[in-house]
Each structure stands twice: as structure tokens, then as C-alpha cells.
Amino acid sequence: MTDPLEISFDVACEVTHAFTTWTDRITTWWPADHTVSGEPDVKIVIEGRVAGRIFERTVTGVEHDWGEVTQWRPPTLLSYRWFLGATRDAATHVTVSFVRVADDVTRVQIEHRGWDELGQEAAARRDRNQAGWDAVLGHYRAALVEPS
Q1: pTM of the shown model
Q2: What range defines the domain where residue 72 resides?
């Protein structure tokens, strides 16, 4: 069995800000080198509803699907099937929880699972995704302190 990736960290803001920065403002912090197109001015969209799409749209209007929302409970929970850079049948599952620790402190908890469904690719995909999370989360943290 391939263990889920579990990432947890505290941020200095209230829960709603942490959630909306992750969802509504993802374009402002997600790095272009972690998109399908690699283009600098893509728009990233998380449709705020169950069955909503997660996708990038290039400046020329080309769209690339990344995932599909499976749970939408603002401002505390977002879950989705994740297939950025893969096919839909090779999707993994991501759950992001936003937990109030204090007035201006939120714990962001990420669980990324579903590796075993990928067969022999499981360990390699998990390792690649760990590196991916390591690369993008610094951008998210920085966006939390920028004005909305």
C-alpha cells in the first residue's frame, strides 16, 4: 500500500481568507511551470460546486482540465479528483481542510491519496506529487499576505 501524502501547516490569517485564496485566487499564486501549457498568463479556475471543473485557460482560450470537485464546503473543506498532467482514469484524490486554530491562525491540512489505483506508477507519481506540493505551497503562503 502506498501511503497518502499528508501535509499540514499553519498560516497567519482567518479561515475564510485561507480558503478563498486557495480557491478564488489560485491564479495569483499557482506557478506557470506547474500548469499543462506552461504559459505565463493562464487563468486557473476552480468551479465552486460539487462536480465543478478545475482547469486552466490560456490567453488564447484553450482549456486544460486538471480535476473535478467532489466536496465543496466553504470555508472549511475542498476535495477533488486530481489529474493534472495525467488522464482522468489516472486521477488521485486531494482533500484540503481549513481549520481555525485561533482568530488569525488557520491550519491547512492536505491529504493526497489514491496512489494504489495507479498500479506500478504509484510510488513514482506519489514522489512527483510530493515535489509538486513542495514547489507550489510556498507560493500559496506568499499569496496569503498579499492584498486580495
Answers
A1: 0.95
A2: 5-30+67-144
